[in-house]
Amino acid sequence: MSQGFEAVLSEEALPLRPAAEDPLGILADRVLAGDTEAFGELVARTEPRILGLAWRILGDRDLARDAAQEAYLRAFRFLGSYRRGESFEPWLVRIAVHACYDLSKKRGPLPVVPEILESFVSEDGPLPADEAVLLRQRRDLVRRALSDLPEGERAALVLRDLEGYSTEEAARILGVRPVTVRSQAATARAKLAAACARLMAPKGGRP
User: Fold this and answer.
1) pLDDT of 133 above 80
2) Is residue 49 exposed (0-12), middle (13-18) or buried (19+ Cβ within 10 Å)?
């Protein structure tokens, strides 16, 4: 991260909605009121989303579990910075994204989850052996291109294109302006499209 974790949590609040409309916010309020068992229910309700997000960013299930565990440890530690009435899930997702950032810095280049790869290089049905080999080579090269994306571009692509967040929601989660998210996501897609174009270009006179 480019700033301390406490600073990330103190940035402009994520979109608000009444706690009565947000079951997760109600649980967070219970934890803040001293009901620590409610945090276990928070984890149970959000873990599939957080694990999926971490897997898409980190590309490895073991790393995703480590990132999710770290995210929940941070969430419990810094729950006092959660603003009552604020939508809880984006607040937690922000923590998870930064946990992924920190873990990726320690682990080096990241692999890519299949669903991202398949959206750029896929096949229609069974292929002859020679074409299957070529497809695997193309996928390996595109996987490297995806792995080389800066963390901001990768996170913007995951949040917008795979997690379904709006530009504004992704911007608040990442702590940047909406125009930055649009630029990062567009740049990521352009880089991947260029990589695919290079891979699909004829070589040695073959069509």
Assistant:
1) no
2) middle
